[in-house]
Amino acid sequence: MRRRDASAVESLVRAAEARYGRVDVLVSNAGFGARALDLDDALSAPDGVWQRMWDVHVMAHARACRAVLPGMLERGAGCLVNVASAAGLLSQTGDTPYSVTKHAAVGLAESLAITYGDRGIQVAVVCPQYVATAITGLEESTAAGALRACSRWSRPRRPSPTASRADASLSSRTPRCWLLPAQGR
Question: What domain count does the chain have?
Answer without folding.
Answer: 1
